[in-house]
Task: structure prediction
Amino acid sequence: KEKKLADLQRQQEEEKERMKRIEALEDLRSKRDALKQKRDALKERVAEAKKSNEDIRKDIQNKKDSDEDVRATREKLNDVMAKLKEVALNFDLDHQLILTTTDKCKSIPVHKVFLSARMEVKRVI
Result:
């Protein structure tokens, strides 16, 4: 009987030890699952941060491109204004000459100028 009792006590101790190991294993599994969830959440946050970072980089590049476009447009506008000023100054300087030429042209009939030009062309040919 004592041997059976000792065997039963040993089996009971072994069963308790096995139960402790099972509980420890279940505890480790639950911790592992919690860590996996945290890792997945961190991966999602990293992906969101990368996407946000890429969006910010694109916005910065678009702003740089926009600044370059504004600069190019400003230069084109300055070129056009310079040409307009040049034309206005040339017209202003030549205005008196234009008026005298216009007066001379009014005194000569148009068909006479045409006929003389036509005759000169015929002479060359």
Notes: The first helix runs from residue 2 to 107.
